Amino acid sequence: MAPLRVIICDDEPLALDRLGTLIAQCSGVVLAGSVLGGRELIAEVQRSAPDLILLDIEMPHVDGFDVIEALSRLSWPADSGPPLVVFVTAHPEFAVDAFESGALDFISKPVRLSRLERALARAREAAEQREARRRLADLSQQLEELKRMRREAGEDHHLWVRRGSDRVRLDMASVDWIAAEGEYVRLHVGGDTFLERGAISDAQARFESLGFVRVHRSAIVNPDRIAGIETGQWGGLKIRLGTGALIPVGKTYRPAVRALIRRA
C-alpha cells in the first residue's frame, strides 16, 4: 500500500506546525500540503488529490463545514471518490456535527501523538478498503474482456463427441441444429448426428456465443444454416434449413426468429 497522502488545514500557524511535526513522526504517511484557510484548502485538494485531510473546524471566512460542503459539489473519479476527512478542533461540542457531516474521525486539541496515530490507522484501513473495491472492479472488467477475447479468438469453439466407440473433435460452427431427446441432445451436422448427454438449456448456453438461437423448447438452430421460414395453415412458423430439415418455431420463441429476419 502506498503511503497515506495527507493535507493539514488550520488557521493558527502554531497549531499547523505542531500537527506537521506529529505527522513527521508517523510511519506510512506523507505530508502532501499544509494550508492556513478553507479556500486555500479547496484549491490544494484539487491540485494534489490527497487521501486524507486533517481539518480544523473553527476558521474565519470558510470554516471546516463550509469546506466539506464545497468538496461535496466537486466531481471525483468513480474509482476513488473524495478524500477522507478527520476533524481536528479545540471544541469537542462539534463532534456530533462533525460525524454527521461524514467525517471519518474527530480529534480534540491539543493533539496527542497516540490519538493521531489511531486516526491515521483508521484512515489507512478505509483507504485500503476503497483500493480493494477499485481493484476488484478493475479485475472484474479485465475478466469480462478476456472472456470476450477468448470467444472472438475461437477458443473452446469445439467439442468432443462420440462416434461409435471413438471420440471425434467437432467444430461447433459446423452444427446445423440441435434437438432435445430426453436427457440427451442430438447434434445434426450435415448428414450425421451425434447424441450427447445433457440438457437443451446447457447446449443453448454453450452455443449462443456463436449466434445459435433457441427456436423451440426442444430445438436450437444455427442461423447460418437457415434457408427459409415457412408459415403453416394455422399461422405457425417452421424454419427450413439448407439440408431440407423443417423445425417448428415455438410461440414463445417467435420474437427471436423475427429478429433474425430483421437482421438478415
Please provide a written account of the structure.
This protein is an alpha/beta fold and 264 residues long. It folds into two domains: 4-148, Response regulator (Rossmann fold, 3-Layer(aba) Sandwich), CATH 3.40.50.2300; 158-263, LytTr DNA-binding domain (OB fold (Dihydrolipoamide Acetyltransferase, E2P)). It has helices spanning 13-24, 38-48, 64-72, 95-100, 113-153, 200-207, 254-263, and strands spanning 4-9, 29-35, 52-56, 84-89, 105-108, 158-163, 166-171, 177-181, 184-189, 192-197, 213-216, 219-221, 226-231, 237-241, 246-248. The strands form four sheets. The chain has a five-stranded parallel sheet, with helices on both faces. A five-stranded antiparallel sheet has the order 10-9-8-12-11. β4, α4 and β5 (105-108) form a beta-alpha-beta unit.
Tally of separate helices: 7
Overall average residue pLDDT: 83
Q: Specify the structural class.
A: alpha/beta
Percent range for β-strand residues: 25-35%
Rg from Cα: 33 Å
The CATH topology of the largest domain is what? Answer: Rossmann fold
Uncertain runs with pLDDT below 50, 5 residues or more?
none
CATH class category label of the largest domain:
Alpha Beta
Distance between the termini: 53 Å
How are strands sequenced across the largest beta sheet? 2-1-3-4-5
- Elements, N to C (H/E): EHEHEHEHEHEEEEEHEEEEEH
* CATH structural architecture of the largest domain: 3-Layer(aba) Sandwich
The CATH H-level homologous superfamily of the largest domain: Response regulator
* Helical fraction: 25-40%
The shape is elongated
Number of individual domains = 2
What is the tally of beta strands? 15
Major sheet summary line: 5 strands, parallel
